[in-house]
Amino acid sequence: MTAFSLEPAQLAWCAELRTLAAERLRPLAEKGESGRVNRALVAELGRLGLLARLFTSGALDLCLMRESLAYGCTEAETALALQGLGAHPVHTHGTEAQRARWLPGVADGTAVAAFALSEPGAGSDAAALELTAHPDGPARWRLSGEKCWISNAPEADFYTVFARTTPGAGARGVTAFLLPADRPGLTGRGLDMLSPHPIGALDFDGVPVTADDVLGEVDRGFRVAMGTLTLFRPSVGAFAVGMAQAALDATLAHTARRDAFGGTLRDLQAVSHQVAEMALRTEAARLMVYAAATAYDAGAPDVPRRSAMAKLLATETAQYVVDTAVQLHGARALRRGHLLEHLYREVRAPRIYEGASEVQRGIIAKELYPRQEAR
Questions:
Q1: In degrees to the nearest 10, what's the CA dihedral of 228, 230, 236, 237?
Q2: What angle do CA 57, 106, 191 make, to 5 degrees?
Q3: Which residues have C-beta within 8 Å of that of residue 281, sequence separation ≥ 6?
Q4: Is 175 within a domain?
Q5: Which segments of 325-368 are extended strands (E)?
Q6: What's the confidence (pLDDT) of residue 1?
Q7: Which of 46, 117, 187, 255 is the most buried (most CB within 10 A)?
């Protein structure tokens, strides 16, 4: 297998996932409440064995899962991705006791995970976070502050929380904690967002944590966060590619049958060239996502740059493709319940979360200049 093609078994698996998304997951998604955790959907992902694969698969498999599920059911894709994002730090940095307590529930869909990094004043600049872990005795702290824009909050069963343990130390003074949702002093509220998946804010009023709650090492939590994001950024791109492909396929079908000006829309060069551009950009984004994921699995040294490029290109591409699809469909695409109306709401957020497009460009530039100077 190369970064530019898939094996027959992988293609068959992707086709199977698309079928599962359409036939078993979408009906459950349609019964869910917008902005709330759909536990029935999460449980079905567990029964299908997809959540367990989050801990046994590489980056490319993660991308294939997210792309295939996104094509048929964006809610299922997002539910799977949020489980992985929230639980990955536990999988990679947790103690045996932490992993035994939480990962089986994540895998079978009975425990909902969340990744709590962003704050009202620290979104793209994650190193500027202000949630503070105040010392409360030997290897004990109390968390005070707020987290915001947290997916699955406030309904998750546990959170991977990043807090400042050393004031004024920037990225070097952040610690990752595994925090059960029932910890005293932790409260939350949902936020009414454009995106249909659950997003909320968390308030920490002296929430007690100990050394047993630390993920990794004290003051080394920023690398836990960045390691998680480096893995998941290409798969955010895969999510975007799945949405772009769904919009492209809907546009192909619509323009082939829609009568206009004595023929069909596809007969108009202006339309057919737009569709060709949509296909070109979608395929280019897909290849970059696969290349970044393959590089991650191979342990390549330039993974941060590749991951940033993949997320940037794919999410910006999906925005273009979905918007163009809406334009070519006309007013019908804006009606509630239309596939493109749904995709139009879904496609905007990935350009912001897990590092906005501007942040990705900064990462790419930061990686490029040392390479040039070393020549």
A1: -170
A2: 110
A3: 244, 317, 320, 321
A4: yes
A5: none
A6: 45
A7: 117
Range of the structural domain that residue 16 is part of? 8-108
Provide the token pair at 202: 């968390």
Same domain, 212 and 294: no
Residues serving a catalytic function are 354
Q: Are residues 128 and 104 in the same domain?
A: no
Q: Name the DSSP class of 338.
A: -
What does pTM read for this prediction?
A: 0.93
The reply to whether 245 and 269 lie within a common domain is yes
Q: Does one domain contain both 268 and 174?
A: no
Task: Verify that 232 and 365 share a domain, yes or no.
Answer: yes
SS3 59: helix
Q: How would you classify the pairing of strands 140-151 and 199-210? A: antiparallel
Residue at which a domain ends, from 88, 108, 128: 108
Domain end residue (candidates: 48, 77, 108):
108
Element (H, E) at 132: strand 132-135
Q: What CATH number is given to the structural domain containing 94?
A: 1.10.540.10
As for how many domains the chain has, the answer is 3
Q: How far apart are CA 304 and CA 363, in angstroms?
A: 8
Cα–Cα distance list, 133 to 136, 141, 168 (Å): 9, 5, 13
Q: Say how many CA atoms lie within 13 Å of 323 toward its Cβ.
A: 8
* Model confidence pLDDT, tens digit, residues 300-330: 989 999 999 999 999 999 999 999 999 999 9
- At 295, is the pLDDT very low, low, confident or very high (cuts 50, 70, 90)? very high
How far, in Å, CA of 184 to CA of 199, rounded? 21
CB neighbours of 269 closer than 8 A, spacing ≥ 6?
none
Q: Are residues 129 and 193 in the same domain?
A: yes
Contact 48, 20 (CB under 8 A): yes
What do you get for the CA distance between the two ends of the chain, in Å?
31
